[in-house]
Amino acid sequence: MNEDKRMTETLPKLALIVPVFNEEQAIAPFVNKIADVLVGFSNKATIEICFVNDGSTDKTEQIIDEISQSTLNIKTINLSRNFGKEAALSAGLDYTDADAVIPIDVDLQDPPELIPEMFNLWMNGAQIVNARRITRDQDTWLKRTSAGAFYKIFNILADHPIPRNVGDFRLLDREVVEVVRQLGERSRFNKALFSWVGFETAELTHERPARADGESAWSYWKLWKLALDGIFSSSTTPLRVWSYIGVLMGVMSFTYSAYILIKTLAFGGDVPGYASTIILILTFGGFNLFALGIIGEYVGRIYTEVRQRPLYVLRQGRLRGKNDMHLNE
Ligand code: UDP
Ligand code: MG
């Protein structure tokens, strides 16, 4: 049988995609930890660690080079400058040829212990395996509440909800990666893209530990910008809501103008010039909002068009997974 041959000939390739930005202290502990966790894994899969060096200015690159002399399968992609984690992650997804990938942070906040279980769920047929944090005790109060508020607002506004407290740490099947690569938009909020594509999704839960070394490179300002990116690139609601507000305000303005007009004509004005002034203001205000709303509708549509997302995504059946499992049984 075809599958039988594939199973015996090659092991599936699993790539860990690790964006790194000035992480010289974190690289060695990360690689050691991965080696520890995945000891004995080599008969199940070929593991590759793919570092995406996001324009680090410290010794990150040298250290990766040194470590890659050792036995582990390490690959590096260097970006020309710091483009931010989302771009670095996209680069990693673009340049991988693995059967499944797991984006993972280098600071060990995404526990590598989950990798074997993610892998098993994948072998059982899931094409996406999410790792959801059940507690955020390690985060500050401000970060917890702001993150909570973000997920709430995002899920109200966006066309496709994202699962709460699932970061970039998840397993993606090759088929999913290929779909994600095809999405045409430039400003990328990977979490939303991963959930937009669909596919059979499994979930694991874990507690997120504190950062192993150094400090988070995400200031609140950067997080705020990321949140705005996420919301505005996943939803046209903030734009289109003005059509409704415009119509509503327009109707109210016209009604009130009519009332003032009739009242002034029937009973005379209290203050000379008041009726004409207020009617002009309300009429133009109403027209303005109404026109803005119409423009908003068109801009929203243009935005949806330029993203060039596919109209639909096919699920083409897996190269690996369910079938292989049956073979093992
Ligand atoms: N990172 C990156 N480019 C950046 C900022 C961060 O590649 O501009 C990497 C960083 O090296 C780490 C991961 O993204 O591997 C997560 O960063 P961090 O731990 O600072 O974020 P947090 O855990 O606070 O979300
Ligand atoms: Mg971190």
UniProtKB/TrEMBL annotation:
GO molecular function, one term: transferase activity
Record PANTHER family: PROPHAGE BACTOPRENOL GLUCOSYL TRANSFERASE HOMOLOG (PTHR48090:SF1), UNDECAPRENYL-PHOSPHATE 4-DEOXY-4-FORMAMIDO-L-ARABINOSE TRANSFERASE-RELATED (PTHR48090)
Keyword terms, alphabetized: Glycosyltransferase, Membrane, Transferase, Transmembrane, Transmembrane helix
Glycosyltransferase 2-like domain residues: 16-178
Alphabetical list of CDD domains matching this protein: DPM1_like_bac (cd04187)
Pfam families reported in the protein's UniProt record: Glycos_transf_2
TM spans (from-to): 241-262, 274-299
Name used for this protein in its record: Bactoprenol glucosyl transferase
Topological category with respect to the lipid bilayer: Multi-pass membrane protein
